[in-house]
Design brief:
Blueprint (H helix, E strand, L loop, with lengths): L15 E11 L21 E9 L2 H16 L28 H13 L4 E9 H14 L7 H13 L6 E9 L4 H22 L6 E6 L5 H17 L24 H6 L3 E11 L2 E4 L7 H4 L11
Parallel strand pairs: 1-4, 3-6, 4-5
Antiparallel strand pairs: 1-2, 2-3, 6-7
Helix pairs in contact: 1-2, 4-5
């Protein structure tokens, strides 16, 4: 992973009094099987690891709307008896989670989020784990006995996500989706402290301290909202696998792997920035309103093979 990358930015004309941020991830930083074999981009292991934050202007209002929508669905006979709405399954009956939710559930949730307009602003950093694995292999070769530590990936991406000059505030309240054990969650807090040190060194002043809480997504609808933005971005980046064969699904017409951009396109007006760390220049590429993230640019189809005369 490279160090924090400088990105020129202009400050906002005014500070927010309090900025409410909700942080979650998509994919995992896993690179290796227990045997040591590289398993990136295979069935059950993502190629990309994504960290995202959602700035929410009025968390209480958003939480109320999402809760009301889910309660409405729970009372709707159309969903009665479906697996994700069975309480014992602890899926949509308990909380929205895009991966587990039915397609008929996702559309109303996306509609609700889109109706919030500029009250929601999403930022993300994307790590290509193939590039990360190459860097790890070089470290292993140079340092006998070196072992990969997943927490270092969280630290690096958190520093990338929070070390940039985004909107300023007098106070930052950050809620991070709980994942794994306490050691993993302590690593997140450490990474945020590192990001603040990076920011001060880069821009010459300290921001207000971040008040950090770590909470299960099921207990906070705003974390469920950032999960939906991340899922849309993940559908763009990750190929789809056939569960039966554990092989990539191919388009029947083009024979190319399938990626899906329609969900990301739907929420793109609410995306502040996606920093693709390993695409384009050595500093990566910043996708914004002026430089939208498009499949044809990020994953261009291979050149057509020309037949020999």
């Amino acid at each position: 992973m490279s160090d924090l990358i400088h990105q020129p930015a202009s400050p906002e004309p005014a500070k927010l009094a309090v900025q409410q941020l909700f942080v979650d991830e998509a994919g995992t930083p896993t690179l290796f099987h227990e045997s040591g074999k590289v398993i990136v981009d295979t069935f059950g292991c993502s190629r990309f690891f994504i960290l995202g934050k959602l700035e929410v202007e009025n968390p209480a209002a958003l939480a109320g709307k999402l809760t009301a929508l889910r309660q409405q669905m729970l009372a709707d006979p159309m969903f009665a008896g479906t697996e994700s709405f069975k309480p014992e399954r602890k899926k949509t009956a308990v909380a929205f989670h895009a991966k587990d939710d039915l397609p008929e559930v996702r559309i109303p949730v996306f509609d609700l989020l889109r109706q919030c307009g500029d009250q929601l602003r999403f930022y993300a950093v994307v790590c290509d784990k193939f590039k990360l694995q190459e860097a790890e292999a070089a470290k292993r070769a140079a340092q006998p006995g070196y072992r990969f530590n997943e927490n270092s990936v969280y630290d690096s991406l958190m520093r990338q996500l929070f070390g940039k000059f985004h909107r300023l505030a007098d106070r930052y309240e950050v809620c991070v989706a709980k994942r794994g054990n306490s050691t993993r969650n302590d690593a997140i807090k450490t990474a945020l402290a590192h990001a603040e040190a990076d920011f001060a060194a880069k821009f010459g002043f300290n921001r207000s301290e971040h008040a950090i809480t770590v909470q299960p997504s099921k207990d906070n609808p705003c974390l469920q909202a950032v999960d939906y933005f991340l899922w849309a971005l993940q559908r763009f980046y990750e190929i789809r696998f056939n569960a039966a064969t554990r092989q990539p699904q191919l388009d029947s017409k083009t024979s190319l792997v399938i990626r899906e951009d329609r969900f990301l396109n739907a929420v793109w007006p609410q995306v502040g920035e996606v920093h693709d760390l390993h695409f384009g220049s050595a500093h990566g590429t910043f996708f914004t309103a002026k430089n939208p993230l498009k499949l044809a640019e990020r994953f261009p189809p291979p050149p057509l093979k020309t037949k020999k005369p």
